[in-house]
Each structure stands twice: as C-alpha cells, then as structure tokens.
Write a structure and sequence with these properties.
Structural class of chain A: mainly alpha
Helix content of chain B: 55-70%
Radius of gyration of chain B: 25 Å
Number of domains of chain B: 3
Helix content of chain A: over 70%
Number of domains of chain A: 1
Strand order of the largest sheet of chain B: 3-2-1-4-5-6
Largest sheet of chain B: 6 strands, parallel
Radius of gyration of chain A: 17 Å
Largest interface: A-B, 81 and 112 residues
Largest sheet of chain A: none
Distance between the termini of chain A: 54 Å
Strand content of chain A: under 5%
Oligomer: heterodimer
Structural class of chain B: alpha/beta
Number of strands of chain A: 0
Number of strands of chain B: 6
Chain lengths: ~90, ~450
C-alpha cells in the first residue's frame, strides 16, 4: 500500500512540474538547469540519516560520501543560480 | 514517532516552497526571489532532518557536509559564465553519484523488501549512467576530449550486451541484495552504459545531452526516494526530472530531430552533393561595415557558440550602446540551440549587461526580421542556415532557423570558411545581401567600435 501512495505522490509532482516548468521562458533556461541541479541535491536528506548512523559501518561511509556530493550540488547550484539571476536586468 | 511526524510535516512545507520557487522562476523579474525561496526550503529540510533519530553521530556527517559546502561555493564563485555548460554537466554527474551512494547504502540495510531492492537497483543504474555520461559530456564541453561524435561498428550490439548483463545483475540482486560483487557489477555496467550513450553525440547536440542528464539526475533522486520511502525526495526528484524532460524536448524540436535520432546517430553524413551553391563570397572590412551600421535604423544581432568562444559579448554590448546613441534600435534574436546548453546565449548577454527585454526568441524575431536594416550574425552558422528552410535534401532541411537572410544587409562575423557542426554548406554566405567579415569576432567588433569613436 505504501508503494501505491508513493506512486500517487510521484504522479502529482510530475504533473505540477510539467505545468510550472513549461512556463519558464527560454531566456532563463540556464538558471533553470543549475537551479534543478541544486534541487536534485535533495538526496542530501536521505544521505544525512545514513551518514549519521552508527560509526564504522559500510553504509555510514557511503552515506557520508553521498552527503558530501549532494552538498556540493545544493550549495554550488543555488549560489551559481543566484549569481546568474542577479545579472538579468530590465532596461 | 512524534519526531517523525514533525519531520514529515516540515517536508510538506518544504515541497510547497520548492513549487513556489519554481513558479517564481517563470519571469526574469521574480526569478531571483524564486531561487532564494527554493534555497531556504532546502535549508529548512536539512535542519529538520538533523532531528532524525536515525542520526546518532554527527561528526562524520557535519565534516562531509562542510567539505561539500566549501567545494560547491568555490565552484559557484569561480566559474566563468562561458563555462556554465561544463559546470552544470559536472553538477549533473555529482548529483547522479550522490543518488548512487544513497541507493547503495540502502541496499546494505537488513531485511529490505524486493520492491526496495528493485528501486535501489534503478537508482544505482540511473545514477551511474548520469555520473559517467556527465563526466564524458564535461570532457567534451571543456575540450579535454574531442567533441566530435564517436561511432563504432556494432555499437548497438555492445549496448544490448551491456544492458543484458545489467538486467541479469539486477535479477541476481533480488536474491542476494547485499552481495557486493553484484552491486559492483551493476554499478560498473551502468558506468559503461553512460559512456556509450554520450560517446556518439557531438558538440552541437550537447544542449540535448545536458538536458537529458539533468533529467536523469532528478529521476535517480526520485528512485532513491522510493527506496527510502522519502516523500520529499520523490517530489523534488520528479520536479527536476520533469524540468529536464521539457528542456530535452524543446531542444530536440529546435533541431527538428527526434531524441532517438540525436542519441543514436551522431549526424547523418551528407549524402548528396547535388546542391550547388550559386553566388560568391563578398568579404568586407570592419571599416566598411561601420559605414553601413552608421546609416542603419534597426539592427538585429544573432549570436551563436562562436560568440562564447571569442568572449565577444562585452564588445557587442559596447557596440549596442553606440548604435543606440546613433538612433538605431537594437534587438537580439536567440535560437533555442545556440550555444552548448539551453539559454547559454541569454546568460552571456545578461553578463554583458544587455537587458533581457531586448532578447527575443526565434518565434518572436522571425515575423519582423525583414524590417531590420542590418543583421549581425556572430559565430552562428547552422541556426541561420536558409538551406533548412528552402533546400530540400539538405541534412538540416526542416530545422527551424532564424531567417537572418531576410534582413536588408547581413554581416556574418566568422573566423574562416569552415562549415558548421552539421558539415553543411551555408547558402547564407553566398547571398546577394550578405557580407562576410572574417577574423576574431571580438576584434572585428572592437574595430567597428573604434570607427564609431573617431
């Protein structure tokens, strides 16, 4: 049953995603991609609970590795997106 | 248990903020705020996750996050705007590998169901493909590896063989999810597959590949979310996946090619050379171009990847100001696949302080392009090739292009007479109203600017 419920969430998010992103103008496509990079760093949340487990086990190290990578994505993605968007000016 | 409810309750708010952030990305004037909201959402998610009771030791976690923050911040600060395609590509790859790490760790948990094994397998595979594919794309974009398509005989057979081994590995994984031999086998085949997918794709098709890998990095996170039954991972991963798919689709349409065609074929060889180009090339100097520009009432600029290579955007902005002070209207016409990633040209021009209100999409500029006195084509080739419009049998026939040739006079700033990526001759260069200005685009523009100053 949990699986079905997760699939519902997936379905709805995909619909919302398509609706929202279709409206992003072409001029913002690069910041959209780097912003998406940042959001895909969401796996950080999963990596955190794995990395914070009992020290010394295999999955703790894997989790810590994943947490490090995902943080690069999150921090780097948001910062570079902000840097780009700050340059977009009207007349 | 209470803590769990709190965490998931906050996750709902985080998801809502992500959606709000994406909505604000719908217009350049609100986009920066949208990005800020999205980042606050992420920070909130991270903080509340720290309350998770599964986290018993913080040292390793905080150290790895600190390292990640430093690396990410450094990359974001240092990258040049012309290198954005490389950075996004690297980030795609890192995101993919992070999902691999999460999925792998979840496989090591005792007593997981077959469903969890299955989705972990998916996350492992998609993440692995994203990682190696993105690294190869990064190598091609930064010209560490030759950008041309690499196609070898029997490539399809190799692909199928790799896929078969991968699926066999997946079946075995269901029986013994903790066997590290099988895990490694799957991961390595995923890496090989990623290389095989990106190898046949050449430089100008990079916008499609980057978009596709962007989408994969989201889907991998989504699969990891299923493995750990984490709603927020599913929502955020789906948003990223959808974004990548939309961009991939947009890029394919702009090249009039199907995704399959882009992925499988490289570019078709030019089969028939029956088309002869008539007319002659008429080169002029920057000095002569100045006289025509000085008399122009309206100018449209069509940039391509060559503008990024020559770093000519700042010189172009300088010329734009001079033209405007001279009473001319200046507009920019931007083809969706100009450059190496979606929106590449827009970011470069924004960096040079060109207002986004002066940047027009292909469909906006084409209906009124015949009203422009001068079209300046900077380092673009295939995206302004009239053969796509009226030369049946040309490999790029049917691709939507910006009709630069319909302007009164066309200046083409170009380094030499090499053909574009498609390897197709460009009849635009031979048209009656076209003038070629050979040389480095930036120096050419500076030459014209000097004439204005005198």
């Amino acid at each position: 049953m949990t699986t079905i419920y997760l699939l519902f969430i997936l379905l709805l998010s995909v619909v919302v995603g398509f609706e929202l992103i279709r409206k992003v103008p072409a001029t913002l496509h690069t910041p959209l991609m780097s912003g998406a990079n940042a959001i895909s760093g969401i796996s950080l949340l999963a990596a955190m609970s794995l990395a914070g487990g009992e020290m010394g086990s295999y999955s703790t190290y894997l989790g810590a590795f994943a947490a490090c990578l995902a943080t690069i994505n999150v921090v780097g993605g948001y910062m570079v997106t902000d840097r780009m968007l700050a340059m977009f000016k009207a007349k | 248990m209470d803590m769990n409810i709190l965490i998931n309750g906050v996750y709902v708010i985080v998801a809502a903020l992500f959606i709000m952030g994406l909505k604000l990305l719908g217009h350049p004037s609100t986009a920066r705020k949208g990005n800020l909201i999205s980042s606050i959402a992420m920070l909130t998610g991270v903080i509340v996750t720290l309350l998770d009771q599964a986290i018993v030791s913080y040292e390793l976690l905080l150290v790895s996050m600190l390292i990640g923050s430093i690396v990410g911040a450094y990359a974001a600060k240092k990258v040049a705007m012309t290198s954005m395609p490389e950075l996004v590509s690297l980030f795609n790859g890192i995101g993919g590998l992070a999902s691999v790490g999460v999925a792998w760790a979840s496989l090591m948990t005792d007593g997981i169901s077959s469903f969890v094994v299955f989705v972990s397998f998916l996350a492992l595979v998609i993440g692995g493909v994203t990682f190696s594919g993105s690294l190869l794309a990064w190598g091609k974009l930064s010209e560490r590896i030759a950008g041309r398509p690499l196609v070898f005989k029997g490539q399809i057979i190799v692909n199928v063989a790799v896929l078969t081994v991968m699926v066999a590995g997946g079946t075995q994984l269901l029986n013994s999810p903790q066997s590290s031999d099988i895990q490694w086998l799957i991961f390595v085949t995923a890496l090989v597959l990623g290389l095989l997918v990106v190898m046949p794709i050449g430089g100008a098709d990079m916008p499609v590949v980057i978009s596709l890998l962007n989408s994969y990095s989201g889907i991998a996170a989504c699969a990891a979310g299923f493995a750990l039954q984490n709603n927020l991972l599913i929502v955020a991963g789906a948003l990223v996946g959808a974004s990548g798919i939309i961009l991939t689709n947009t890029m394919c349409k702009a090249m009039n090619r199907s995704l399959k065609n882009v992925l499988v074929s490289g570019f078709q060889k030019v089969t028939s050379n029956s088309i002869t180009l008539e007319g002659e090339i008429k080169p002029i100097s920057a000095d002569d171009a100045y006289y025509i520009l000085e008399a122009a009432q309206s100018v449209v600029v069509i940039p391509g990847y060559g503008m990024a290579v020559a770093q000519a955007q700042h010189a172009m902005k300088e010329l734009q100001v001079l033209l405007e002070n001279n009473g001319a209207e200046v507009a920019y016409g931007i083809h969706p696949v100009a450059g190496r990633m979606p929106g590449h040209m827009n970011v470069l021009l924004a960096e040079a302080d060109v207002s986004y209100e002066q940047l027009f999409e292909m469909d906006e500029i084409n209906p009124r392009i015949d009203g422009f006195d001068v079209a300046i084509v900077i380092g673009a080739n295939d995206v302004v090739n009239p053969a796509a419009r009226d030369m049946e049998g040309s490999p790029i026939y049917g691709m939507p292009v910006i009709n630069a040739d319909l302007a009164n006079t066309v200046f083409v700033l170009k380094r030499g007479m090499a053909t574009g990526f498609a390897g197709v001759d460009n009849p635009l260069f031979f048209k009656e109203n076209t003038r070629m200005i050979f040389g480095d685009a930036k120096e050419t523009l500076n030459g014209i600017i000097r004439q204005f100053a005198d």
